[in-house]
Specification:
There is one protein chain. With about 325 residues, this protein is of the alpha/beta class. Helix content is about 35%, strand content about 30%. The strands form 5 sheets. The chain has a 6-stranded mixed β-sheet with strand order 11-9-10-17-19-18. Strands 2-7-6-5-4 form a 5-stranded mixed β-sheet. A 4-stranded antiparallel β-sheet has the order 8-12-13-16, with no helix packed on it. A hairpin with a 2-residue loop joins strand 18 and strand 19. Helix 4 packs parallel to helix 5 and helix 7 packs across helix 9. The radius of gyration is 27 Å and the shape is elongated.
Length: about 325
C-alpha cells in the first residue's frame, strides 16, 4: 500500500460525524483492514490490531454493557492507550460517555456512521482499499460499453477521445479520458477511474474540454469501472500481419493481472468506434462461452472433411 489517508479525509469520504478526539483528525491511516475489538473487551489484548480503525457495533456494545464498571474503564482505556487511528460506531449504537472522554484525552477521533455495522464494515473497507491501493496512471480512455470496461490506448493523435465521444453518443458511459488511474483490488480485478481534476471531462481537438454530464446527462458517466478489455488503436501497416480469424488470445499485464488485449488497425475508411464496440461485444460473447472463430474453424474442418470424402467416392 503506497498511499496514506488522514482521518479527516476518511470522515469526508465516508460522511462520518466526529463526536470526540477532534485534535486527532490528522492521524494517518495506511492499512485498509478494519478490526472489531470484541475479544479485547473481554480482556485479551495479545492480538490487538491497533494499527487498524476500530469498528464498534451492537455486539461489541452489548458485551461492553455486561462488564462491571471497573472492567469497562480498564479495558477501554487500554484500547485507547495502544493509539489506534480512530473508533467508528455504527448508526444503531449509542456511544458511551467513557469513549468520548478517552477520545478527547488521547486525541483519538471517535466517529459516528449512518451505516449499520455490516454495511459500515463493507463500505469503509472498500473505501480504504480503493484509496490506499498502489496505482498506475496510463494514457488512454476508459469506457463502459454494455457492461464491459474497455480501455482504449494508442499513439497520440489517433482519435481515442473522438472514438469515445461517438460511443458515448450511442449510449455508453465514459469513465476517464486522457489519463486513467488503475488500482488492483485483488489479482484479476483491476479498477480504473479518472484523476480528480479530470472527472467528467473529455478533450476533443478543435472543440476543447467538454463536460460529458452537461452534454449527455448523468447516464453518460460513471466514477469507476473494472477493466475487462484493452483495445489498442494502431495505424494500418501493409507489412504487418494482423489476426484475421480472432483465434489468438493476447493479453497485457498490469500489476499481476493479465488483461485481454485486441489490436485494431485503423484507416480513414474504417469506423473506429464501431470496431471498438464490436470488440467489446465479441469479448462479452467469449465470456458467455461463445467464440465465433471456434465455430468458423469447426465449420471449415467439417467442410474440408466432407469434400475429402466426396472426392474419395468420385475416384
Amino acid at each position: 500500500m503506497a498511499n496514506m489517508l488522514t482521518i479527516q479525509q476518511i470522515m469526508t469520504g465516508m460522511k462520518l460525524e466526529i463526536l470526540a478526539g477532534k485534535n486527532g483528525v490528522n492521524r494517518i491511516v495506511d492499512n485498509p483492514n478494519l478490526s472489531k475489538p470484541g475479544v479485547e473487551l473481554a480482556g485479551m489484548f495479545d492480538f490487538y490490531e491497533h494499527d487498524r480503525i476500530q469498528i464498534i457495533g451492537s455486539k461489541e456494545m452489548t458485551y461492553f454493557h455486561w462488564l462491571k464498571e471497573n472492567d469497562q474503564k480498564a479495558r477501554v482505556r487500554e484500547l485507547f492507550a495502544k493509539e489506534p487511528p480512530a473508533f467508528v460506531f455504527s448508526t444503531n449504537v449509542a456511544v458511551p460517555k467513557l469513549f468520548l472522554e478517552l477520545g478527547d484525552e488521547f486525541d483519538i477521533p471517535v466517529l459516528k456512521s449512518s451505516y449499520a455495522t455490516t454495511s459500515l464494515f463493507s463500505e469503509l473497507f472498500s473505501f480504504l482499499q480503493a484509496k490506499l491501493a498502489e496505482r498506475k496512471a496510463l494514457h488512454g480512455v476508459l469506457l463502459d460499453i454494455n457492461g464491459v470496461g474497455v480501455m482504449i490506448v494508442g499513439e497520440s493523435g489517433l482519435g481515442k477521445s473522438e472514438v469515445a465521444l461517438e460511443l458515448i453518443r450511442r449510449g455508453y458511459m465514459l469513465v476517464a479520458d486522457d489519463m486513467v488511474e488503475i488500482y488492483q483490488v485483488e489479482k484479476g480485478v483491476l479498477i480504473g477511474e479518472a484523476p480528480e481534476l479530470l472527472k467528467k471531462y473529455l478533450e476533443i481537438r478543435g472543440i476543447g474540454i467538454v463536460n460529458i454530464i452537461y452534454l449527455f446527462g448523468v447516464k453518460a458517466y460513471r466514477e469507476t469501472k473494472k477493466i475487462s478489455l484493452m483495445v489498442e488503436l494502431e495505424k494500418w501497416d501493409d507489412y504487418k500481419e494482423f489476426d484475421r480469424l480472432g483465434t489468438k488470445q493476447e493479453s497485457r499485464r498490469i500489476f499481476d493481472t493479465d488483461v485481454p488485449y485486441v489490436g485494431l488497425p485503423i484507416t480513414e475508411a474504417r469506423n473506429t468506434a464501431t470496431l471498438v464496440e464490436a470488440a467489446a461485444y465479441a469479448f462479452k460473447s467469449r465470456s458467455l462461452g461463445y467464440q465465433s472463430s471456434d465455430e468458423f474453424s469447426e465449420n471449415l474442418s467439417r467442410k474440408i472433411a466432407e469434400n475429402g470424402k466426396r472426392n474419395g467416392e468420385e475416384k
